[in-house]
Amino acid sequence: MNITKEQKLKERIEKAKQQLSTLQQKRKLEIGELAYQCGIADLADDKLLEVFTHLASQHVNHS
Amino acid sequence: MLITPEAIKKQSQQLAKLERQLARLKTKRRNEETRHKILLGSLVVKVKLHQLPLDDFYNGLLEIKKKLENEPELINLYQYKGESIFMGYQSLQKVNIEEGISPIPTLDSLKYLRQQTRRKIQFGGLIIKANLPLTTKAQVLGALISLREGGRMKINGGQSVIDN
Prior knowledge:
The complex is a heterodimer of chains A (63) and B (164).
Chain A (H helix, E strand, L loop, with lengths): L1 H37 L6 H15 L4
Chain B lengths: L4 H42 L7 H17 L3 H13 L20 H24 L6 H13 L3 E4 L2 E4 L2
Antiparallel strand pairs in B: 1-2
């Protein structure tokens, strides 16, 4: 009986992992979209990283 | 619709919750399996086969399995034998594996008892591994008695002897 329960839980975990992965992918796309809207999407990767690092230091610690 | 960081956090928490549930279920199952092995191992001690080397014991179980394939009606005999022990119609000489141990628990006696439990788990595990077509505790006990009495295996001063 426990094996069936375990199997069901494993299936639910797999589904939850897929959902989380989908959400994370969508969020990444949205962040890219926001970068376009802010006009920073054309920056080189290292500059873009600098911008985000700066933003992170300004906001993440205060959140 | 925008995906908020909160939604991702919530999904991560849901996943962690499910993983915790699975871990608990696995622990429960492992404990049940161990309990079952100890129960089967106790039957091995009851019929005094616990002094046998594990591989001899396992070979004996495989012989029983082969016998049962040829003569499935032996199960009834095993059931009868096992039941008569449980019901007290027949008696086995009581095996006290704790013999010689001080009634006051000492570190050594606890260590010894732990070893005996580990031994029971090993014997019980072999019974499960042999996958005998036996469904009741009485049948297993009966089969073990047959292994000891009618089988080719005998205990001789703690050593197993295979009769030819």
